[in-house]
Amino acid sequence: MGFLRSRSAVTPLRRVGLNSATVNAVSLSSGRRSSVVQAVALHRPEEPMHCIRPGVLADTASSFLSAFAEATDAVARGGDVLYAVKCNPEPAVLRALWAGGLRHFDVASPGEIRLIRQMFPDAVLHYMHPVKGRQAIRNAYHQYGVRDFVLDSREELAKILEETDNAADLGLVVRLALPKGNAVYDLSGKFGAAMADAVELLRDVRAAAPKVGLSFHVGSQMLDPSAYERAITLAGRVIAEAGVAIDVLDVGGGFPVSYPGVTPPPLGDFMAAIARGIKALDLPESCRLWCEPGRALVAPGVSLVVQVVKRRGDELFINDGVYGALSDAGVPGFRFPARLIRPFEVMTDAADAAFSFYGPTCDSADKMNGPFHLPADVKAGDWIELGQLGAYGSCLRTAFNGFDQARVVEVSDAPLLATPGYVLRSCAA
Predict the structure, then answer these.
(1) With contact defined as beta carbons under 8 Å apart, do 345 and 378 qualify?
(2) Domain 56-298: which topology?
(3) What tens digit of pLDDT does each residue of 9-46 get?
(4) For the whole model, what pTM was predicted?
(5) CATH class label, 33-53+300-410
Protein backbone atom coordinates (compact mmCIF):
# COMPACT_ATOMS: atom_id res chain seq x y z
CA MET A 1 0.00 0.00 0.00
CA GLY A 2 1.21 3.46 -0.80
CA PHE A 3 1.35 6.34 1.65
CA LEU A 4 0.23 9.93 1.65
CA ARG A 5 2.52 12.82 2.33
CA SER A 6 1.96 16.54 2.41
CA ARG A 7 3.95 18.86 0.20
CA SER A 8 4.15 22.57 -0.48
CA ALA A 9 3.88 23.66 -4.10
CA VAL A 10 5.93 26.80 -3.61
CA THR A 11 9.58 27.03 -2.69
CA PRO A 12 9.90 29.01 0.56
CA LEU A 13 11.41 32.43 0.31
CA ARG A 14 15.16 32.09 0.55
CA ARG A 15 16.72 34.41 3.11
CA VAL A 16 20.01 36.04 2.28
CA GLY A 17 22.04 38.08 4.74
CA LEU A 18 25.01 40.40 4.87
CA ASN A 19 28.28 38.86 6.06
CA SER A 20 31.21 40.92 7.29
CA ALA A 21 32.88 41.06 3.90
CA THR A 22 29.84 42.35 2.06
CA VAL A 23 29.07 44.82 4.82
CA ASN A 24 32.55 46.26 4.49
CA ALA A 25 32.23 46.31 0.72
CA VAL A 26 29.37 48.77 0.86
CA SER A 27 30.60 50.68 3.93
CA LEU A 28 27.61 49.90 6.11
CA SER A 29 27.87 51.14 9.67
CA SER A 30 27.80 48.50 12.39
CA GLY A 31 24.37 47.07 13.10
CA ARG A 32 22.64 48.96 10.29
CA ARG A 33 20.58 47.16 7.68
CA SER A 34 21.24 47.78 4.03
CA SER A 35 19.15 49.83 1.66
CA VAL A 36 17.42 48.25 -1.32
CA VAL A 37 20.05 49.67 -3.68
CA GLN A 38 22.84 48.21 -1.56
CA ALA A 39 21.10 44.84 -1.44
CA VAL A 40 20.78 44.81 -5.23
CA ALA A 41 24.46 45.73 -5.59
CA LEU A 42 25.46 42.94 -3.23
CA HIS A 43 23.30 40.14 -4.56
CA ARG A 44 22.74 41.12 -8.22
CA PRO A 45 19.51 39.12 -8.03
CA GLU A 46 18.34 37.26 -11.13
CA GLU A 47 15.27 36.01 -9.27
CA PRO A 48 12.61 38.14 -7.52
CA MET A 49 13.84 39.67 -4.26
CA HIS A 50 11.41 40.59 -1.48
CA CYS A 51 12.69 43.51 0.60
CA ILE A 52 11.26 43.52 4.11
CA ARG A 53 11.39 46.69 6.18
CA PRO A 54 11.06 45.56 9.83
CA GLY A 55 11.18 49.10 11.15
CA VAL A 56 8.35 50.23 8.88
CA LEU A 57 6.24 47.21 9.85
CA ALA A 58 6.79 47.74 13.58
CA ASP A 59 6.04 51.47 13.31
CA THR A 60 2.91 50.87 11.24
CA ALA A 61 1.63 48.35 13.78
CA SER A 62 2.34 50.70 16.67
CA SER A 63 0.66 53.59 14.86
CA PHE A 64 -2.45 51.55 14.08
CA LEU A 65 -2.68 50.22 17.65
CA SER A 66 -2.51 53.77 19.00
CA ALA A 67 -5.20 55.00 16.59
CA PHE A 68 -7.58 52.17 17.48
CA ALA A 69 -6.92 52.69 21.18
CA GLU A 70 -7.89 56.34 20.81
CA ALA A 71 -11.10 55.33 19.02
CA THR A 72 -12.04 52.84 21.72
CA ASP A 73 -11.08 55.27 24.49
CA ALA A 74 -13.40 57.82 22.90
CA VAL A 75 -16.32 55.48 23.57
CA ALA A 76 -14.97 54.30 26.95
CA ARG A 77 -14.27 50.73 25.84
CA GLY A 78 -11.42 48.30 25.48
CA GLY A 79 -10.31 47.13 22.07
CA ASP A 80 -8.14 44.57 20.32
CA VAL A 81 -6.38 44.72 16.94
CA LEU A 82 -6.32 41.30 15.24
CA TYR A 83 -3.77 41.00 12.42
CA ALA A 84 -5.21 39.06 9.46
CA VAL A 85 -2.40 36.54 8.99
CA LYS A 86 -3.52 35.54 5.48
CA CYS A 87 -2.37 38.94 4.24
CA ASN A 88 1.30 38.08 4.82
CA PRO A 89 2.44 35.13 6.96
CA GLU A 90 6.18 35.60 6.35
CA PRO A 91 7.88 35.02 9.75
CA ALA A 92 10.05 38.14 9.46
CA VAL A 93 6.91 40.20 8.90
CA LEU A 94 5.16 38.60 11.86
CA ARG A 95 8.14 39.22 14.15
CA ALA A 96 8.16 42.90 13.16
CA LEU A 97 4.44 43.24 13.88
CA TRP A 98 4.97 41.59 17.25
CA ALA A 99 7.77 44.06 17.96
CA GLY A 100 5.28 46.82 17.16
CA GLY A 101 2.95 45.59 19.91
CA LEU A 102 0.49 43.26 18.15
CA ARG A 103 -0.65 40.36 20.33
CA HIS A 104 -3.91 39.24 18.68
CA PHE A 105 -4.12 37.35 15.39
CA ASP A 106 -6.97 36.63 12.99
CA VAL A 107 -6.21 33.08 11.85
CA ALA A 108 -8.24 31.33 9.17
CA SER A 109 -6.64 27.91 8.67
CA PRO A 110 -4.87 25.14 10.60
CA GLY A 111 -1.57 26.19 9.01
CA GLU A 112 -1.90 29.77 10.25
CA ILE A 113 -2.82 28.53 13.73
CA ARG A 114 0.26 26.28 13.89
CA LEU A 115 2.54 29.04 12.62
CA ILE A 116 1.43 31.70 15.11
CA ARG A 117 1.36 29.33 18.07
CA GLN A 118 4.87 28.11 17.25
CA MET A 119 6.24 31.62 16.86
CA PHE A 120 4.34 33.31 19.69
CA PRO A 121 3.14 30.90 22.38
CA ASP A 122 1.45 33.72 24.30
CA ALA A 123 -0.45 35.18 21.33
CA VAL A 124 -4.24 35.32 21.36
CA LEU A 125 -5.69 33.49 18.36
CA HIS A 126 -9.14 34.12 16.92
CA TYR A 127 -10.45 31.62 14.33
CA MET A 128 -12.21 34.04 12.00
CA HIS A 129 -13.10 31.75 9.08
CA PRO A 130 -16.90 31.25 9.12
CA VAL A 131 -16.75 27.77 7.50
CA LYS A 132 -14.31 25.28 9.03
CA GLY A 133 -13.64 21.57 8.84
CA ARG A 134 -14.41 19.46 11.86
CA GLN A 135 -10.82 18.40 12.46
CA ALA A 136 -9.70 22.00 12.12
CA ILE A 137 -12.13 23.05 14.86
CA ARG A 138 -11.17 20.12 17.06
CA ASN A 139 -7.42 20.71 16.79
CA ALA A 140 -7.76 24.48 17.17
CA TYR A 141 -9.59 24.11 20.47
CA HIS A 142 -7.97 21.04 22.04
CA GLN A 143 -4.40 21.30 20.72
CA TYR A 144 -3.76 25.02 20.18
CA GLY A 145 -5.92 26.71 22.80
CA VAL A 146 -8.16 28.66 20.41
CA ARG A 147 -11.35 29.79 22.12
CA ASP A 148 -12.88 32.36 19.74
CA PHE A 149 -14.69 31.09 16.63
CA VAL A 150 -16.66 32.93 13.96
CA LEU A 151 -19.75 31.39 12.33
CA ASP A 152 -22.55 32.42 9.99
CA SER A 153 -24.92 29.44 10.13
CA ARG A 154 -26.59 27.01 12.52
CA GLU A 155 -24.66 24.18 10.87
CA GLU A 156 -21.36 25.82 11.81
CA LEU A 157 -22.57 26.43 15.35
CA ALA A 158 -23.45 22.74 15.71
CA LYS A 159 -20.00 21.71 14.43
CA ILE A 160 -18.20 24.01 16.85
CA LEU A 161 -20.19 22.79 19.84
CA GLU A 162 -19.76 19.14 18.91
CA GLU A 163 -16.03 19.29 18.17
CA THR A 164 -15.25 21.25 21.35
CA ASP A 165 -17.40 18.91 23.47
CA ASN A 166 -19.79 21.74 24.30
CA ALA A 167 -16.99 23.65 25.99
CA ALA A 168 -17.94 26.18 28.61
CA ASP A 169 -15.28 28.74 27.67
CA LEU A 170 -16.08 29.51 24.04
CA GLY A 171 -16.27 32.88 22.38
CA LEU A 172 -18.73 32.69 19.47
CA VAL A 173 -18.94 35.55 16.98
CA VAL A 174 -21.70 35.77 14.35
CA ARG A 175 -20.59 37.11 10.95
CA LEU A 176 -23.20 39.50 9.55
CA ALA A 177 -23.59 39.88 5.78
CA LEU A 178 -23.46 43.41 4.42
CA PRO A 179 -24.99 44.80 1.24
CA LYS A 180 -22.63 45.12 -1.70
CA GLY A 181 -20.44 48.15 -1.10
CA ASN A 182 -17.90 50.29 -2.92
CA ALA A 183 -14.65 48.75 -1.67
CA VAL A 184 -11.98 47.97 -4.25
CA TYR A 185 -12.44 44.31 -3.29
CA ASP A 186 -16.07 43.60 -2.46
CA LEU A 187 -16.43 40.80 0.11
CA SER A 188 -20.21 40.70 0.43
CA GLY A 189 -20.91 37.52 -1.54
CA LYS A 190 -19.22 34.61 0.21
CA PHE A 191 -19.73 34.89 3.97
CA GLY A 192 -22.20 36.33 6.40
CA ALA A 193 -25.68 35.68 7.71
CA ALA A 194 -28.59 37.75 6.46
CA MET A 195 -30.06 40.12 9.01
CA ALA A 196 -32.95 37.87 10.08
CA ASP A 197 -30.66 34.84 10.32
CA ALA A 198 -28.08 36.81 12.28
CA VAL A 199 -30.75 37.77 14.81
CA GLU A 200 -31.59 34.10 15.41
CA LEU A 201 -27.94 33.08 15.50
CA LEU A 202 -27.16 35.69 18.14
CA ARG A 203 -29.88 34.24 20.33
CA ASP A 204 -28.57 30.73 19.76
CA VAL A 205 -24.96 31.54 20.59
CA ARG A 206 -26.01 33.55 23.64
CA ALA A 207 -27.57 30.38 25.00
CA ALA A 208 -24.48 28.32 24.18
CA ALA A 209 -21.42 30.41 25.10
CA PRO A 210 -20.28 32.82 27.79
CA LYS A 211 -18.79 35.25 25.23
CA VAL A 212 -20.87 36.37 22.26
CA GLY A 213 -20.03 38.75 19.46
CA LEU A 214 -21.11 40.17 16.13
CA SER A 215 -18.75 40.87 13.22
CA PHE A 216 -18.84 42.23 9.68
CA HIS A 217 -16.42 43.19 6.89
CA VAL A 218 -16.93 46.26 4.69
CA GLY A 219 -14.56 44.97 1.98
CA SER A 220 -10.86 45.25 1.26
CA GLN A 221 -9.23 48.63 0.49
CA MET A 222 -12.30 50.58 1.58
CA LEU A 223 -11.77 54.27 0.82
CA ASP A 224 -14.98 55.56 2.41
CA PRO A 225 -14.81 56.00 6.22
CA SER A 226 -18.60 56.31 6.46
CA ALA A 227 -18.94 52.68 5.34
CA TYR A 228 -17.92 51.61 8.84
CA GLU A 229 -20.50 53.86 10.44
CA ARG A 230 -23.25 52.46 8.20
CA ALA A 231 -22.22 48.89 8.95
CA ILE A 232 -22.20 49.56 12.69
CA THR A 233 -25.71 50.99 12.41
CA LEU A 234 -26.88 47.80 10.69
CA ALA A 235 -25.16 45.70 13.35
CA GLY A 236 -26.98 47.75 16.00
CA ARG A 237 -30.32 46.84 14.45
CA VAL A 238 -29.46 43.15 14.59
CA ILE A 239 -28.37 43.38 18.21
CA ALA A 240 -31.51 45.29 19.20
CA GLU A 241 -33.84 42.87 17.43
CA ALA A 242 -32.05 39.86 18.93
CA GLY A 243 -32.49 41.34 22.38
CA VAL A 244 -29.19 39.95 23.66
CA ALA A 245 -26.22 41.63 25.28
CA ILE A 246 -23.04 41.15 23.27
CA ASP A 247 -19.49 40.99 24.57
CA VAL A 248 -17.66 41.81 21.30
CA LEU A 249 -18.36 43.97 18.27
CA ASP A 250 -15.85 43.30 15.49
CA VAL A 251 -15.69 46.03 12.83
CA GLY A 252 -13.53 43.89 10.54
CA GLY A 253 -10.78 45.00 8.21
CA GLY A 254 -10.63 46.87 4.94
CA PHE A 255 -8.54 49.83 6.13
CA PRO A 256 -6.83 51.24 3.02
CA VAL A 257 -3.31 52.24 2.02
CA SER A 258 -1.86 54.45 -0.69
CA TYR A 259 -1.15 53.32 -4.24
CA PRO A 260 -0.21 55.44 -7.27
CA GLY A 261 -3.20 57.64 -7.99
CA VAL A 262 -4.93 56.53 -4.76
CA THR A 263 -4.52 58.54 -1.56
CA PRO A 264 -7.01 57.39 1.07
CA PRO A 265 -8.37 59.62 3.82
CA PRO A 266 -6.21 59.68 6.95
CA LEU A 267 -6.53 56.72 9.29
CA GLY A 268 -8.03 59.03 11.91
CA ASP A 269 -11.08 59.60 9.70
CA PHE A 270 -11.86 55.88 9.76
CA MET A 271 -11.39 55.69 13.51
CA ALA A 272 -13.62 58.71 14.03
CA ALA A 273 -16.36 57.10 11.93
CA ILE A 274 -16.11 53.93 14.01
CA ALA A 275 -16.32 55.92 17.23
CA ARG A 276 -19.38 57.82 15.99
CA GLY A 277 -21.10 54.58 15.06
CA ILE A 278 -20.39 52.99 18.43
CA LYS A 279 -21.60 56.04 20.35
CA ALA A 280 -24.99 55.72 18.66
CA LEU A 281 -25.48 52.14 19.93
CA ASP A 282 -26.70 51.04 23.31
CA LEU A 283 -23.94 48.52 23.99
CA PRO A 284 -22.99 47.15 27.40
CA GLU A 285 -20.06 48.96 28.97
CA SER A 286 -18.13 45.68 29.02
CA CYS A 287 -18.44 45.17 25.24
CA ARG A 288 -14.99 45.12 23.58
CA LEU A 289 -14.27 46.33 20.08
CA TRP A 290 -12.22 44.30 17.63
CA CYS A 291 -10.83 45.08 14.20
CA GLU A 292 -8.99 42.89 11.67
CA PRO A 293 -6.49 44.92 9.61
CA GLY A 294 -4.26 43.19 7.12
CA ARG A 295 -3.26 45.38 4.18
CA ALA A 296 -3.10 48.49 6.37
CA LEU A 297 -0.42 46.93 8.57
CA VAL A 298 1.88 45.30 6.04
CA ALA A 299 1.52 46.82 2.55
CA PRO A 300 4.20 49.53 2.93
CA GLY A 301 6.58 47.23 4.80
CA VAL A 302 7.63 45.06 1.85
CA SER A 303 8.72 45.85 -1.68
CA LEU A 304 9.72 43.63 -4.58
CA VAL A 305 12.80 43.91 -6.77
CA VAL A 306 12.46 42.44 -10.26
CA GLN A 307 14.87 42.37 -13.18
CA VAL A 308 14.08 43.36 -16.73
CA VAL A 309 14.75 40.41 -19.04
CA LYS A 310 13.64 42.04 -22.29
CA ARG A 311 12.20 45.31 -23.56
CA ARG A 312 9.77 45.50 -26.48
CA GLY A 313 8.70 49.08 -26.99
CA ASP A 314 6.73 50.09 -23.93
CA GLU A 315 6.42 46.46 -22.73
CA LEU A 316 8.91 45.08 -20.22
CA PHE A 317 9.41 41.36 -19.69
CA ILE A 318 10.32 40.88 -16.01
CA ASN A 319 11.16 37.89 -13.81
CA ASP A 320 7.99 37.95 -11.67
CA GLY A 321 4.33 38.26 -12.55
CA VAL A 322 0.72 37.44 -11.78
CA TYR A 323 1.58 33.85 -10.82
CA GLY A 324 4.16 35.21 -8.41
CA ALA A 325 4.02 38.23 -6.15
CA LEU A 326 2.20 40.48 -8.63
CA SER A 327 -1.23 38.84 -8.69
CA ASP A 328 -2.95 42.10 -7.77
CA ALA A 329 -1.33 43.81 -10.76
CA GLY A 330 -3.07 41.39 -13.13
CA VAL A 331 -6.86 41.26 -13.44
CA PRO A 332 -7.48 43.42 -10.32
CA GLY A 333 -5.41 46.12 -12.02
CA PHE A 334 -3.53 47.42 -8.99
CA ARG A 335 -0.75 49.85 -9.79
CA PHE A 336 2.36 49.88 -7.64
CA PRO A 337 4.94 52.62 -7.16
CA ALA A 338 8.05 51.83 -9.18
CA ARG A 339 11.64 53.05 -9.36
CA LEU A 340 14.58 52.07 -11.52
CA ILE A 341 17.69 50.70 -9.78
CA ARG A 342 21.11 50.84 -11.49
CA PRO A 343 23.70 50.35 -8.77
CA PHE A 344 26.59 50.09 -11.25
CA GLU A 345 25.70 52.97 -13.59
CA VAL A 346 25.09 56.67 -13.25
CA MET A 347 21.38 57.35 -13.52
CA THR A 348 20.45 59.49 -16.51
CA ASP A 349 17.94 62.32 -16.53
CA ALA A 350 15.60 60.52 -18.94
CA ALA A 351 11.97 61.56 -18.64
CA ASP A 352 9.46 59.09 -17.26
CA ALA A 353 7.39 56.95 -19.59
CA ALA A 354 4.49 54.53 -19.04
CA PHE A 355 5.20 50.79 -19.30
CA SER A 356 3.29 47.54 -18.99
CA PHE A 357 4.84 44.29 -17.75
CA TYR A 358 4.86 40.69 -18.86
CA GLY A 359 5.73 38.04 -16.26
CA PRO A 360 8.15 35.14 -16.79
CA THR A 361 5.65 32.35 -17.53
CA CYS A 362 4.55 31.14 -20.97
CA ASP A 363 0.95 32.26 -20.29
CA SER A 364 -0.08 35.36 -22.24
CA ALA A 365 -2.41 36.22 -19.36
CA ASP A 366 0.70 36.83 -17.26
CA LYS A 367 0.45 40.53 -18.04
CA MET A 368 0.26 43.62 -15.87
CA ASN A 369 -1.07 46.67 -17.71
CA GLY A 370 -0.12 49.24 -15.09
CA PRO A 371 0.82 51.76 -16.25
CA PHE A 372 4.11 51.67 -14.37
CA HIS A 373 6.09 54.91 -14.70
CA LEU A 374 9.84 54.52 -15.14
CA PRO A 375 12.64 56.38 -16.91
CA ALA A 376 12.20 56.09 -20.67
CA ASP A 377 15.64 54.52 -21.14
CA VAL A 378 14.94 51.41 -19.03
CA LYS A 379 16.59 48.37 -20.60
CA ALA A 380 17.21 44.65 -20.17
CA GLY A 381 19.39 43.98 -17.12
CA ASP A 382 18.00 46.88 -15.11
CA TRP A 383 16.34 46.25 -11.78
CA ILE A 384 12.98 47.74 -10.75
CA GLU A 385 11.70 48.13 -7.21
CA LEU A 386 7.91 47.89 -6.82
CA GLY A 387 6.47 49.16 -3.53
CA GLN A 388 3.38 48.48 -1.42
CA LEU A 389 3.67 44.72 -1.91
CA GLY A 390 3.59 43.62 1.72
CA ALA A 391 -0.09 42.75 1.33
CA TYR A 392 -1.01 39.70 -0.72
CA GLY A 393 2.34 39.63 -2.52
CA SER A 394 4.55 36.75 -1.42
CA CYS A 395 1.64 34.77 0.02
CA LEU A 396 -0.08 34.45 -3.39
CA ARG A 397 2.97 33.02 -5.14
CA THR A 398 2.48 29.80 -7.10
CA ALA A 399 4.82 27.25 -8.65
CA PHE A 400 3.24 27.57 -12.10
CA ASN A 401 5.63 26.94 -14.97
CA GLY A 402 8.45 26.32 -12.49
CA PHE A 403 8.96 29.98 -11.62
CA ASP A 404 8.85 29.58 -7.84
CA GLN A 405 12.27 30.82 -6.76
CA ALA A 406 12.50 34.01 -4.72
CA ARG A 407 14.66 35.44 -1.98
CA VAL A 408 14.10 37.80 0.93
CA VAL A 409 16.30 40.46 2.49
CA GLU A 410 15.76 42.94 5.29
CA VAL A 411 16.37 46.60 4.56
CA SER A 412 16.03 49.87 6.42
CA ASP A 413 15.07 52.55 3.90
CA ALA A 414 11.69 54.26 3.73
CA PRO A 415 8.78 52.85 1.71
CA LEU A 416 8.14 54.17 -1.79
CA LEU A 417 4.75 55.56 -0.73
CA ALA A 418 3.45 56.81 2.61
CA THR A 419 -0.14 56.39 3.76
CA PRO A 420 -1.74 59.31 5.64
CA GLY A 421 -2.13 58.82 9.35
CA TYR A 422 0.74 56.40 9.95
CA VAL A 423 3.80 57.59 11.84
CA LEU A 424 7.05 55.94 10.69
CA ARG A 425 10.14 56.37 12.85
CA SER A 426 12.52 53.52 12.10
CA CYS A 427 13.57 54.18 8.49
CA ALA A 428 17.03 55.09 7.40
CA ALA A 429 17.48 58.68 6.29
Answers:
(1) no
(2) TIM Barrel (3.20.20)
(3) 566 677 665 443 333 333 333 235 689 999 999 999 99
(4) 0.91
(5) mainly beta
